[in-house]
Structure to design on (188 residues):
């Protein structure tokens, strides 16, 4: 038997052997669960992380609203004006209502403006055209019977991509969390 005829008889045998191995592999279902979990795990974990982040954002929003309301009460009753509370001390009062997982001093901006009446209230936009915090904040707690608007802005760095949650409203995939309180100062 020549060398070429040996290789010709081996080729069909190899094909049959390969076909049998493939069929045996195809019928074997021992690792199917692991493969299915591998396919489903990433979207599931992404969704789970998005749910946790959304929950943290809403919790932070609620805490910021509480902080603005409590610190605003200090302005409304005249404590800030009569005791000479500075903008930094007022910001700290808002921060005290926030949770410990937030880096309050670096990411919180406070804007306090006073007006003669509710009809004259005019506030600048919080974000500029580039999706960044506009700045231009002031600290004017007002006098007796003036209308005061207290706003606080917290910049949240999103963990999940925006195409999953759709929650970012700033440039670079960040979210601006804002809270405001408007009131008329009491006579003090």
């Amino acid at each position: 038997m020549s060398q070429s005829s040996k290789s010709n008889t081996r080729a069909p045998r190899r094909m049959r052997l390969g076909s049998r191995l493939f069929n045996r592999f195809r019928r074997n279902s021992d690792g199917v669960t692991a493969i299915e979990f591998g396919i489903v795990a990433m979207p599931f974990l992404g969704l789970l992380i998005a749910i946790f982040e959304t929950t943290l954002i809403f919790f932070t929003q609620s805490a910021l609203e509480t902080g603005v309301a409590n610190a605003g009460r200090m302005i409304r009753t005249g404590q800030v004006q009569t005791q000479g509370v500075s903008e930094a001390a007022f910001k700290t009062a808002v921060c005290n209502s926030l949770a410990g997982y937030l880096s309050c001093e670096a990411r919180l901006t406070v804007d306090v403006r006073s007006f003669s009446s509710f009809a004259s209230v005019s506030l600048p936009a919080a974000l500029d055209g580039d999706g960044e915090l506009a700045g231009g904040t002031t600290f004017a707690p007002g006098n007796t019977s003036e209308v005061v608007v207290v706003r606080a802005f917290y910049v949240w760095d999103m963990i999940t991509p925006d195409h999953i949650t759709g929650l970012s409203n700033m440039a670079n995939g960040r979210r601006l969390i804002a809270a405001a309180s408007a009131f008329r100062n009491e006579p003090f």
